[in-house]
Amino acid sequence: MPAAAPVATSAASADPIAAIRKNLAERLPQLPPIEEITPAPMAGLYEVRLQGADIVYTDAEGNYLIQGQVFDTKLRRNLTEERIDKLTAIDFKSLPLKDSFKLVRGDGKRTLAVFVDPNCGYCKRFERDLEKIDNVTIHLFLYPILGADSVAKSQSIWCAKDKAKVWSDWMVRDQAIPSAQCDGAPVARNVEFGRKHKITGTPTLLFANGTRVPGALPAAEVEKLLVAAAGSTKP
Fold it and tell me: Which of 4, 135, 171, 224 satisfies CB 3.0 to 4.6 Å to 127 for a cystine?
């Protein structure tokens, strides 16, 4: 009886990551650049991180592409969301504070950064609630993502002599924003920074310990997060 022919080892089984990269590039040339391929928590599944922090999943040969989220039902965790949060985390110390302006309340010892759009209704509600918080320095990043009028308003606020006053007058007291002109590059850089870090809505809050929260939180919740951030950043 003749000996069985040796089973060929496919490139995919020898090096699935190389196979995935090769096959996806050849079969889906319109796919954004692949930055990283790693085994996913689920056996047989691979995470493909595209340009930035976009994540899709595939099998060991790149024959199938899955768009969606992976949940761990035992631990009740959204693994995709956790991964994206990690990829888009922002070190507070890396924030381009030169492109923001400050509101200082009390001793200003605690810090908070907020990405805001002047036409965002949630931002207005949040700004009014934020006035209840004391002993904090708030770095406001103008982030006009709601249209051309948001860009125009942001430019005028940035170019105002007293940015903080004009901002508060508009957001809290509904006073019109005086027209002003200057170099609006900082506002454009904020939009670029936010897109890079997947900031998709306003307000988005960033605390000193790296905690990132999208949406308008009640003052009591902001206070709790400020306390937690201050405690975790002590030397």
Answer: 171
Name the DSSP letter for residue 50. E
What's the domain count of the chain? 2
| Domain CATH code at residue 53 | 3.10.450.70
**Total residue length of the chain:** 235
Characterize the bridge pairing of strands 110-116 and 136-142. Answer: parallel
Yes or no: say if 13 and 30 are a contact pair by the CB < 8 Å rule.
no
Same domain, 52 and 114: no
Tokens (6 digits) for 89: 């985390």
Residue 79 lies in domain = 11-87
Q: Look at residue 120 and give its three-state secondary structure.
A: coil
Task: Please check whether residue 4 lies inside any domain of the structure.
Answer: no
Among 151, 149, 157, 144, smallest CA distance to 195 is for 144
Instruction: Give the residue carrying structure tokens 């030169």.
Output: 98
pLDDT tens digits along 62-103: 999 999 999 999 999 999 988 887 887 789 999 999 999 999
Tokens of 171: 């957001």
Same domain, 78 and 116: no
Give percent helix, percent strand, percent coil of the chain, each to the nearest 5: 35, 20, 45
| Sequential DSSP letters for 152-204 | HHHHHHHHSSSHHHHHHHHHTT-PPPPP--S--HHHHHHHHHHHHTT--SSSE
User: Do 196 and 141 share a structural domain?
Assistant: yes
pTM exceeds 0.85, yes or no = no
Report CA dihedral (61, 66, 72, 76) to the nearest 10 degrees: 170
Q: What is the DSSP letter of 2?
A: P
Asked if the structure places residue 5 within a domain, the reply is no
